[in-house]
């Protein structure tokens, strides 16, 4: 499209340089400014500057061609060959100037993508270990020990994670609420893995029966988790077995009461204190005393001295109507997980929390089968109540996985509790 004020003459008019300069400026400054303002201004200015320099050269060449045409007319020599030569010279200069303008404008907007250096194959830890053990003339290269991570030739070499996991076999564990439900399943799994377990519970019937069943791998200590003296006696019993490495708190109670009932009566304060006292204060009581005992252990892999696993509930996050006391207690357990893990990180003790959903414990066993099936139907997948061994298997994995720390894990089949 011709700009206003330009001639359409092919031989001597300034059509080429002026029209191409306009196109070059629009491509350089207009497009860049419309996309990224900060980058477009710089690119547009650069393109306009380059285009202006080229257009000045092209315009001068065109003026020379025009002068030749004028002089040819004045001399009266309008023979065909002279006129054709003049026209070709002007057309060539115009095309060359326009092409140069486009090239400069395009070059100023080009994003240069530098090729990435070819990645080097990462050596495995075994290859690096064998290379270091064979000796090297490079004194700056660190040697890798059995429990080290290191950098060799710019590559971080990690040892096998299986070397860092705490071994259940031969470890000493303490499980509160260990005579029934989640606690009992955990005691059985740990004992089955070769651990020696102290069963902590108030039930002086089920506790001794489980101790007898498991034999020398288990010891029952009747304990009230809210009593510092009782908990300390249980921990002393674990220490006598070889040093406490695992402490799992499953003891807890539940109670339903609205903050204000239908008759206008306020929630019983003593009941609230009881639920919080057992579920939250009792859990912290075990945690603090177990940590003090674990701190005396010799560090194992990664400098770990022990692991503490507490039990919250999905009610900590999805509390239902009537669960003010229970939700407060379990939310407290979930909330103190990270700060306690940070407190104990300096001495190599991990702290984790499991938040179970609807589990098939003795508490639910008393419900009618229709009610139990109704609870299971509300679970997205799998559509069943959680089994106590689901909890126990997760607890075992936490013990063995030394990189789990300071986190709350929901165990609920994707269940989110409704208001009631």
Task: Describe the protein in words.
The protein is α/β, with parallel strands linked by helices. The chain folds into three domains: 15-109; 125-159, no CATH class; 172-411, NAD(P)-binding Rossmann-like Domain (Rossmann fold), CATH 3.40.50. It has helices at residues 15-35, 37-75, 80-109, 125-133, 181-192, 206-214, 228-240, 269-294, 324-335, 337-344, 362-365, 369-377, 388-400, and strands at residues 150-152, 155-157, 172-176, 196-201, 218-222, 244-249, 306-311, 349-356, 408-411. The chain has a seven-stranded parallel β-sheet with strand order 5-4-3-6-7-8-9, sandwiched between helices. α5 links the parallel β3 and β4 (196-201). α1 (15-35) packs parallel to α3 (80-109), α5 crosses α13 and α8 packs parallel to α9. The longest helix has 39 residues, at 37-75. The model is unreliable at 1-54, 72-78, 103-113 and 122-159 (pLDDT under 50).
Structure class:
alpha/beta
Q: Name the beta content range.
A: 5-15%
Helicity level, as a percent range?
40-55%
Query: Residue ranges: pLDDT <50 for 5 or more in a row?
Result: 1-54, 72-78, 103-113, 122-159
Q: Can you list the strand order of the major beta sheet?
A: 5-4-3-6-7-8-9
Q: What's the β-strand tally?
A: 9
**Main beta sheet strand tally, sense and closure:** 7 strands, parallel
Radius of gyration from the alpha-carbon trace, in angstroms:
40 Å
Global mean pLDDT: 76
- The N- to C-terminal Cα distance equals 73 Å
Task: Please state the second-level CATH architecture of the largest domain.
Answer: 3-Layer(aba) Sandwich
CATH superfamily of the largest domain: NAD(P)-binding Rossmann-like Domain
Shape: globular
Order of helix and strand elements from N to C terminus: HHHHEEEHEHEHEHEHHEHHHE
User: Can you count the helices?
Assistant: 13
* Count of the domains: 3
CATH level 3 topology of the largest domain:
Rossmann fold
CATH class of the largest domain: Alpha Beta
